[in-house]
Amino acid sequence: MLKLRPAIVIETRRAGSGAGSGSGEHPGAAREQRLVVELATDSEPAHPGKRREAIADVGLVGRTEVGDEVIVNVQALDLGL
Questions:
Q1: Which residues does 20 contact at the CB level (< 8 Å), separation at least 6?
Q2: pLDDT (tens digit per residue) in 18-76
Q3: How far, in Å, are 2, 34, 49, 52, 61 from residue 78 at the CA level?
Q4: What are phi and psi of 61, to 5 degrees?
Q5: How distant, in Å, are the alpha carbons of 19, 28, 59, 61 from that of 50?
Q6: CA–CA separation, 23 vs 13, rounded Å?
Q7: Nearest alpha carbon to residue 39 among 15, 65, 3, 63
């Protein structure tokens, strides 16, 4: 089952952007984009929501930028997977 929530992108990174990555990346590395998103809250719009890491499939949704509104599936993290 999917558990979808609206969120705002607050940080973007390329997959594999840690140590050892660079100009020698293989072409498949650009297919994923690592994100940090802030989940929208239903009850208190004035209070920020939880921040979570997310992965975007660039081939399906395109590149995201800070400030973009996205829909994320939070089911796995809510279940502790």
A1: none
A2: 433 444 455 555 689 999 999 987 655 555 678 989 999 999 989 999 999 999 988 88
A3: 11, 19, 14, 11, 23
A4: -115, -5
A5: 27, 30, 27, 23
A6: 15
A7: 3
